[in-house]
Amino acid sequence: MEKRLPKAKQGEFHRLKLTKKQQLTKNTFALEFEIPEALKLNYEFEAGQYVTIRYPSKRGVFQNDFSMTSAPYEEKIALGIKINNEESSTKDLINDFEVGDEVEISEPKGRFTLVSKPHEFRTIIGFAGGIGITPLLSHFKNILHKEPRTRLFMFYGNRKSEEIAFKNELDSLAKKYADRLQIFYFFSQEPTSDNLFHGRLDERKLKLIINQILHLDDTDEENTIWDAVDEVLICGKGEMIKSLANACYNSGIPKKNIHFELFEEYNEDIYPVEKDFPRVENIEVDFKLFNKNYSTTLKNNEVKLLQQLLIQGFPVPYSCKSGICGSCECVLEEGEVELLENEYLTEKEEASGKILACMSVMLSKKIKVNFDLV
Ligand code: FES
User: Fold this and answer.
1) DSSP 3-state assignment of 127?
2) Which residues does a 6 A CB cutoff place in the pocket of ligand 1?
């Protein structure tokens, strides 16, 4: 999936050989790259992470982020790439490179990861929209491989059945792990025999899913499967994530167990924030990022620190924008902020001056932060 957003710390680039290029649907492709022996350590990764590809084309040099579909045990970089439209830079990537060519690929990065618990009985639910399936495929393969007691449910939404990416791989996983994995497909623009599977994945649909799919729990007759859910993984567009994350939270899943990866620019808060602050205007902000010093003035404190820096076009790292993933962690060196939500920093880290820029409301006219000190 093409993610145009500068959401991560920068990683080293190396040239990797393209070993497979396969068309999956009308506009999605799978690419695979081999990891040479000498770079094995550089490309160790966790399920759910992504890489940046830098590639020249007739229209200039492009740099795009793509989630990996491979699981760590597969020891290769596999990606799912969508060409969004005729102008999309990913079209050049797909057209200009053939098997055998070398492409510049960054070392893996990203915080859409889970702690592995191979000895526990867990229930994990995934929601994917369109090409948002890519990091979930990596997670699901990894969990099925490493956690013999974990059961998984995948809810995958597309407009039409012909748009399902990685259908063959998903179906073979569901067949191989029939006792632990169930996959349900939803279509927003195609009739389905059961109305449950028609429409978008959103809050309303989640209620139906809980009532009609996740109702009885064979392993615990007192409870439903939903009661047993340990982790939720969501990947897709902002509106889908917002709707599902809030619905999961309102249905009893703690925020720290709801993990999501945004696949588009989205500057709204995922979870609503209800609190009033004294208004501060013309805030001077100095910050250090990737060894560069920046200065800017922010109009007021109505919008949180990270979001204002992104609106001004600074390449500040982020992922969840909700105080959960830690991508926007930085050290407050001067000034005052209020951290609205924090599911990531420990008390000790907060006391040492660390903040999460995405959840920081500025309360002083001068703020100085350092993103490199974490
Ligand atoms: S972007 Fe995830 S904690 Fe700020």
Assistant:
1) strand
2) 318-321, 323-328, 344, 356, 358
